[in-house]
Design a protein that fits this description.
single chain, Porin, globular
C-alpha cells in the first residue's frame, strides 16, 4: 500500500478515488459500513471528492444532491462524472456510481460556485447549547454499524435511548449534538457532506428503537467555501436535526451544521424510507 494512503485518516482512505485507464474508481471501507451497504455519508463524500478532483471544476460546492438507488455493496465501484453546464459563476455537474451487480447504485448532481466578496447578512442565530468541551461523549459501545464509531457524538439535547420494546408515545425528533471525526480531523467541505448524513434516523428517536431505514435522497446546501473553513479550523459542528412527517413508509429529515463560533456552515434535507 502507498505510504501516503497507509498513514492517511480513515475518512480520507474511505473516500479515496483515483483515475485508472481513463476511468474514475473507488472502493468501500469496512470502517464505514452501515446496516445494509455503505454509510450514505461516506458515499456522498466520495462522489463529491471525485467531482472536486475534476480538472475543469471551478469554485466550491454550493448545492449537492445524492440519490441512493441501491445499497453500495462491499468492494470497488466506478464513477462517471460529467460537466452538464457552466456559466460565469456556477457549474452544474452530474456523477454516477456503478457496480457490476447493481448497475447505478447512486447518482448525484452538484452546483459549484465561485463566491465573491459582497454584502453579507446572517439573520439566523445559532441555538443556545452546551459548549463542545463541556458536553459528554456519547457511548457507541455495542453499536453494530461501524460508521458510527468513526464519528464522535456529544448530545446536548435528546440523547437517544434505544430499548428493545420501543416507546408507546412518540418522542420528539429534535436533537442537538456536537459531531466530529472520532480520529481528530479538521473539518472541510467533504467532512460536512458526510456529517450531513451522520444524524441518527429521526424515527430511531421518535420510536426509541432501531428499525429498518434507508436514505432515498439527500440535499446539502453549503453556506461557506473552502477559504472560509481554512480561516476557522473546526474540530466539530453542532448538528441540529428534526423531522416534520412520518407517513406511509417515508419521512423527512432536516439538519443544520453550526461552527463553534456560531456560523451556519450547511443545511441539509433528506427523504428516508422506514419499515415500522
Amino acid at each position: 500500500m502507498d505510504a501516503k494512503v497507509e498513514n492517511a485518516h480513515p475518512f480520507d482512505v474511505a473516500t479515496r478515488v483515483e483515475q485508472r485507464d481513463g476511468r474514475w474508481q473507488g472502493a468501500t471501507s469496512d470502517d464505514y459500513h452501515a446496516f445494509v451497504g455503505q454509510f450514505g455519508g461516506a458515499t456522498a463524500a466520495t462522489l463529491l471528492r471525485a467531482l472536486m478532483m475534476q480538472p475543469e471544476r471551478a469554485g466550491d460546492p454550493l448545492a449537492f444532491t445524492v440519490n441512493f438507488c441501491a445499497p453500495i455493496a462491499p468492494g470497488s465501484f466506478e464513477l462517471t462524472p460529467r460537466l452538464i453546464k457552466a456559466t460565469r459563476s456556477t457549474q452544474h455537474w452530474g456523477i454516477e456510481l456503478t457496480q457490476p451487480d447493481a448497475g447505478v447504485a447512486a447518482f448525484a448532481t452538484a452546483v459549484f460556485a465561485q463566491r465573491r466578496e459582497t454584502w453579507t447578512h446572517r439573520p439566523t442565530e445559532m441555538p443556545q447549547t452546551t459548549a463542545y468541551g463541556d458536553a459528554p461523549v456519547y457511548s457507541r459501545e455495542g453499536v453494530a454499524a461501524s460508521w458510527v464509531r468513526q464519528f464522535e457524538f456529544r448530545f446536548v439535547e435528546n440523547e437517544p435511548s434505544f430499548g428493545s420494546a420501543g416507546q408507546q408515545i412518540p418522542a420528539s425528533p429534535h436533537t442537538k449534538s456536537w459531531i466530529g471525526h472520532s480520529v481528530p480531523r479538521t473539518l472541510d467541505l467533504l467532512s460536512l457532506s458526510a456529517i450531513a448524513d451522520a444524524f441518527f434516523a429521526r424515527i430511531f428517536h421518535v420510536r426509541g428503537e432501531l428499525l429498518p431505514i434507508g436514505t432515498v435522497s439527500m440535499t446539502t446546501y453549503f453556506h461557506v467555501d473552502a477559504a472560509d473553513l481554512a480561516n476557522e479550523p473546526i474540530p466539530a459542528v453542532l448538528g441540529v436535526a428534526d423531522a416534520n412527517v412520518f407517513h406511509k413508509s417515508f419521512s423527512d429529515q432536516t439538519g443544520e451544521l453550526w461552527s463553534p463560533s456560531g456560523k451556519l456552515l450547511a443545511t441539509t434535507h433528506q427523504i428516508t424510507y422506514f419499515k415500522a
